[in-house]
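The authors assume throughout that readers already know how a fold can be written as discrete tokens. For illustration, here is how one protein appears when written out as sequence plus structure tokens.
>
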Amino acid sequence: MKKYLLMTFALLFISCTPQEIDSLAQVVTSFYPLTYFTEQIAGDYVNITQITPDGIEPHEYALSTNDLKAIETADLTVAQGGAFENWAEEFYFGQLVDYSGLVLVYSHEMDFVLNEENLLDPHVWLDPVLAQEMVLLLSDYLSELDPEHAPEFRTNAEAIRAKLAALDEEISAGLSSCQTNKLIVTHDAFSYFSSRYNLETLPLLNAADFDEPSLQELKDLADYAKENGLAVIYMESLE
């Protein structure tokens, strides 16, 4: 059985180290959205280990010794890439462990964008349309990992894609009656979502380092909110 390291956003890592296992295939996921998609596609046919604990910021999480062991012994490791996890590129370039046999593959199926800081935005799953492409990628790699259950994986993937398509329609319909397309968010994670639904987002935190805003930036933020009649800052929850 081949062993894979997959980065679903801009990078796909594939390790070709053979590993024979007698039980369920071992799949490691970086954080919850990838865990959810993998669970929905694979069902009970794989054993999934999530690296970043729920409630912890994935951007800042550092791999533990147990995490490294889980990745090294997994048949498939799914990470977002695009600098979303601070360990993924280090892992690929051999700075964490000597992980021979890796091949770097770029996904040309999605249109990736730059955020306001001219950085590649890794939050592609927040766009329900692009999330459907992520689901297809996961389905393909899980099918290669476990060909016997490939038909089930594809059926499950199509069911998830249908739900995401319905979500896209629901969001579009809901936003159509809004009086403004401007909103303030905690950090610049909504490039894809904003582009999809014609929104203008102003981030509170810098996408590059998550530094707290300066007094001048807070003043600019308050002026922007006042000028546009905005009374809410949208914050993501880690719960």
Summary: The beta strands are 4-7, 11-15, 25-29, 46-50, 76-79, 102-106, 182-187, 200-205, 233-234. Residues 174 and 184 are 18 Å apart (CA to CA).
